[in-house]
């Protein structure tokens, strides 16, 4: 095999490395750096597939490497960030956030054997889930003073939502809910209203929330897809 045929695999390995470094920084509370590492992983994850198509360098090994790298960058790293964030909040079971890991790993394995997901997704994409949790963890740790100032009764009610949210998002990863992607060609308002709504939320949220903007953006993405799914079922 020519050296250039290994370029996609090297990009996958770069993704895995950046994810592992991100998990290290997350464990030490350096969430901005951890999110930068996740961003590097996202770029590498995009280009490993892009280069595989350009170089016609598809292989079972490359497919496995891609999933294993994603498990680190988009499973372990965001789970570590959220665990540390919940620990700083004083949540009783911060390690509950590690449910993100098995759900992400299962999702990635399922994706590899599901031929229905060539132009759209079935279930929440792992990178979207990772961005949601990493962004939420970042927002929590940068607003600890505000959150700690809440009345105790409100804080306890918020604590009760964490297990529900973690389980719900984990279910979305492995669910059969159809979700749109950016692979469908040029979008139009008639058939891609959800995409334009998500982009609108992102445009409004980024100036207001910075790295925390992925929470409302991914939330809008999930809501649009769930509404569409329920409408189709009716």
TrEMBL record:
<feature type="transmembrane region" description="Helical">
    <location>
        <begin position="92"/>
        <end position="109"/>
    </location>
</feature>
<comment type="similarity">
    <text>Belongs to the CDP-alcohol phosphatidyltransferase class-I family.</text>
</comment>
<dbReference type="InterPro" id="IPR050324">
    <property type="entry name" value="CDP-alcohol_PTase-I"/>
</dbReference>
<keyword id="KW-0444">Lipid biosynthesis</keyword>
<feature type="transmembrane region" description="Helical">
    <location>
        <begin position="20"/>
        <end position="47"/>
    </location>
</feature>
<feature type="transmembrane region" description="Helical">
    <location>
        <begin position="195"/>
        <end position="223"/>
    </location>
</feature>
<feature type="transmembrane region" description="Helical">
    <location>
        <begin position="121"/>
        <end position="141"/>
    </location>
</feature>
<keyword id="KW-0594">Phospholipid biosynthesis</keyword>
<dbReference type="GO" id="GO:0008654">
    <property type="term" value="P:phospholipid biosynthetic process"/>
</dbReference>
<dbReference type="InterPro" id="IPR043130">
    <property type="entry name" value="CDP-OH_PTrfase_TM_dom"/>
</dbReference>
<keyword id="KW-1133">Transmembrane helix</keyword>
<dbReference type="InterPro" id="IPR048254">
    <property type="entry name" value="CDP_ALCOHOL_P_TRANSF_CS"/>
</dbReference>
<keyword id="KW-0808">Transferase</keyword>
<keyword id="KW-0472">Membrane</keyword>
<dbReference type="GO" id="GO:0016780">
    <property type="term" value="F:phosphotransferase activity, for other substituted phosphate groups"/>
</dbReference>
<dbReference type="GO" id="GO:0016020">
    <property type="term" value="C:membrane"/>
</dbReference>
<feature type="transmembrane region" description="Helical">
    <location>
        <begin position="153"/>
        <end position="174"/>
    </location>
</feature>
<keyword id="KW-0812">Transmembrane</keyword>
<dbReference type="InterPro" id="IPR000462">
    <property type="entry name" value="CDP-OH_P_trans"/>
</dbReference>
<protein>
    <recommendedName>
        <fullName>CDP-diacylglycerol--serine O-phosphatidyltransferase</fullName>
    </recommendedName>
</protein>
<keyword id="KW-1208">Phospholipid metabolism</keyword>
<keyword id="KW-0443">Lipid metabolism</keyword>
<dbReference type="Pfam" id="PF01066">
    <property type="entry name" value="CDP-OH_P_transf"/>
</dbReference>
